[in-house]
Amino acid sequence: MNKQERLLTYSGNALLYGFLGVLFVVTFFPFWQIFILSVNDGTDSLRGGFLLWPRDISLDSYSAVFSNPEILDSVKVTLLRTMLGVPLSIFCIALLAYALSKKELVFGRAINLFFIFTMYFSGGLIPTYMIIKSLGLIDNFLVFIFPGIINIFWMILVRTFMEQLPRELEESAEIDGANDVRIFIKVILPICLPVLATVGLFSAIYHWNAWYDSYIYTYKPDLKTLQAVLVKILNQYQTGDMLNEAQANASKRIPVTSESIRMTVTMVATIPIILVYPFLQRFFLKGMLLGSVKN
Amino acid sequence: MKASAQPSQNKLTKKVVKQRYLYLMLVPGLIWAILFSYGPMLGLYMAFVDYQPSLGKFWSSFLGSKFVGFDWFSYFFAGNDFYLVMRNTLVSSILTILIGFIVPILIALSLNEVRNMAFKRVIQTVSYMPYFISWVIAANIFVTLLSADGVINELLKLLGLTKESVLFLQEGKYFWGIVASANTWKEMGYSSIIYLAAIASINPELYEAAKVDGATRARQMIHITLPMLKPTIVILLILAVGNILNTGFDQYYLLGNSLNREYSDVIDTYSFRYGIQNGMFSYASAVGLFKSVVAFILVLGVNSAARRMNNNSLF
To answer: Which intervals hold domain ABC transmembrane type-1 (chain B) (predicted)?
Structure first.
């Protein structure tokens, strides 16, 4: 390598690692900032300044958040909908995917199209609201479960997986006299565990992150999910209630401000996603890759 | 003809009977699709009547509403709101495509050059993270960073670029840039996966041959990796253009406020405000239907364009 080439390699590497370094800061720092503001003393944060590290560590806003009945209830509702919604979703999606994966299904192509069409055309916000209302799902816990029980993208992921299974698996069971239901439960479900786990993670994240259904379709305070409560807190902040309150608090010098509460609730809503993240990387990214390569 | 049609029909019935359990498995999915997808589509009749929510029972007053044809549509197209929401929808979408489309390609190309696996994993892990959090969390993060005493303003002051805090979310002119950056931030790491997969499928012999010819890493990137990525890039760009009206609702609703509405109001938030908040269900349905139809035609057109380019349908 001559001198010029070496210089070129060095500057190329500098550019490369510089870009990836910026990428790291841009994605990581916002989360870090929220974390710092959630563990820093609320009144101290009002002084402003560049906070890279907590100046005055205080867990008061965490104890305030975890002793707030509204937030505790919302965590309960969110956990409940996740625990009920995920297994139901996996089961219904697997059923649908299995039936649609059968090449010999009479009218199979038409039925497939019937489902695919729903991905490309929707009635929109208002007619959906009307249907939810006329089904009696307003202010009903089931509104968290049924409308989102099936997702056609995930169904296609499972269907593709099932279509690639060797035919012989089912044939030997058929010879033993097993019907489609038995084959589905005894043969197909166990083999599909990896892809169903992927769908389960997708679904768990969907339920944990969902805010719109709780925000729009429920009025009762005991049906608000954590994300819906966080939207309420954000709205209060945006409309300026927080500003006045923050000024009032600054003079009183109390450790918790509505701003530090907002940061803490944001953290509480983020942490579960971070916790399932290792599993996500293992199953779901692999699954996504499979789907994307096929496309 | 008749003689042969009869047995084949019998055969069909037999086949359906034999597949009865499969049809039974379709039932939950069918009920879901009919109730929550096709139901709302039928409910779009709302857009062609003058529905008054105050009149008694929902179904009787809905079906008994006065038919007004395309009146709501012409009302929407004639008003100034149409221009505003279309402008906001298109400009913020195009801006998102401009920024959000290039960054994932750069990320994939850069990650592909990194030889240190641990470093690569850290960057990947961190950059995928924003994709998995909700827009509610993302909006809270952006509101915090962009606030008057937030990090961005502190940084601008430190660099001497501004003396007074910039009110990013209160002044509408910044909104399109903010939403395009937020979209990019949330999606860039995740979107790079598809390019990384495409790079991984490039035949390694091409690189071997280039090395023999003495091509540097930079030259390999420009002359092998990029041309091999071109089909993927073109397909994804076409798809992005097809989804230009599907801006998403969350980020506009959550980052928007009454001060920046002139710039933050897109078709979805507009329809939401008029329908759910102001009770003008028929008008809001018409606005939503306009979007659904145009978006559907765009996606279909784009699909056939992609099919022609790739001989491979996206359906």
So the answer is: 86-302
